[in-house]
Specification:
Layout (H helix, E strand, L loop, with lengths): L2 H4 L6 H10 L10 E5 L5 H14 L3 E7 L9 H10 L3 E6 L7 E8 L2 E14 L16 E5 L2 H4 L1 H14 L14 E7 L4 E11 L7 E6 L3 E10 L3 H8 L13 E3 L5 E3 L40 E2 L2 E2 L2
Parallel strand pairs: 1-2, 1-3, 6-7
Antiparallel strand pairs: 3-4, 4-5, 5-10, 7-8, 8-9, 8-10, 11-12, 13-14
Length: 312
């Protein structure tokens, strides 16, 4: 049972709105992300955490105070903080001699750990290192994934799902071309994971479709996967389960074509083609002289021949 089920009643309007906000919904709220510092961090990690906070605003909760967190050994403090603030995602930065410049990404299901992946920051460039225009806070980004490992490696498959949860932004049913301003690219190679951030610039092309250029704005991260704690298949299926009201009702005899067009199938009774009415063409009708074709001396009926004479 989640935290919403444990809260009983409230006497104030603010408390009532708080309960309604945490109550189960068909379309859940945008997930909040907790950004936490470990017992020790360096300047590179601090810039990384600030950049992630900038990308996730206004749905990020940044804690500047350092905490003694070791999530792979004890995840309970993070789960308690997640339940208190109703946050389904977390990012933890820590630095040690054994695991330098460590970045831990994770997500919760019912305020308990679902997935967690540990990444090592090999090189990084922050937003401030790129002296150009940036996108507005809260802009929904386009997420691009390249690399065979995102489909062949189980850890990278789950990491891709985690990155989508972390950066996808608010739910949108349509996209306006003029509002398409931000793109995040993730490339998986044998060396690790590369993250790049671009501002989408549209220019006139002389036609209806504008010319598109990408301008790197940061952050730029080169990461390597270290440790992971992934949910079991049964728990992951439970987390993906959707209410019946959101599932699209299947329409009989209607399917979607390869090009996106809807195609329908019509069932008809068996027809007798012998009774099929066809169009009568004038050129196929028998003419007036069809009865006398071949001349008057032709025999029309063999029964009319008597004694070697032809009767008329």
């Amino acid at each position: 049972m989640g935290i919403a089920g444990r809260i009983q009643k409230t006497k104030t309007r603010k408390g009532k709105r708080h309960i309604e906000d945490r109550a189960p919904k068909l379309i859940e709220n945008e997930k909040k992300v907790l950004i936490l510092k470990g017992h020790k961090t360096n300047n590179v990690l601090q810039e990384c955490l600030k950049d992630i906070n900038s990308l996730k605003r206004p749905h990020a909760i940044f804690f500047n105070r350092k905490r003694d967190l070791v999530p792979f050994e004890n995840i309970t403090p993070v789960e308690q903080l997640s339940a208190k603030l109703d946050a389904g995602l977390f990012v933890i930065g820590s630095h040690s001699k054994k695991r330098p410049q460590n970045l831990i990404l994770g997500r919760m299901f019912d305020h308990h750990l679902l997935d967690m992946v540990e990444l090592g920051v090999q090189s990084a460039k922050s937003l401030h290192d790129f002296k150009n225009a940036k996108v507005a806070a809260g802009t929904k980004p386009c997420l691009l994934f390249a690399g065979e490992r995102f489909s062949s490696d189980d850890t990278y498959v789950r990491l891709k799902s985690l990155l989508i949860d972390l950066f996808r932004g608010e739910h949108a049913t349509a996209v306006r071309l003029g509002g398409f301003e931000h793109a995040l690219a993730f490339t998986a190679t044998e060396a690790g994971l590369h993250m790049r951030s671009y501002r989408v610039v549209t220019q006139r092309s002389g036609g209806r479709v504008p010319r598109v250029e990408l301008e790197e704005i940061g952050p730029s991260l080169d990461l390597v996967v270290r440790r992971s704690r992934l949910a079991s298949d049964d728990l992951f299926r439970r987390a993906l389960k959707q209410p019946k009201q959101l599932k699209a009702k299947k329409v009989k005899n209607v399917s979607d074509g390869k090009l996106g067009a809807q195609m329908g199938r019509i069932h008809m009774e068996r027809q007798d083609l012998r009774k099929l009415t066809t169009r009568k063409l004038k050129g196929l009708k028998p003419g007036k002289n069809a009865a006398v074709e071949g001349g008057a001396g032709d025999v029309q009926n063999p029964m009319d021949v008597q004694d070697g004479e032809v009767t008329t």
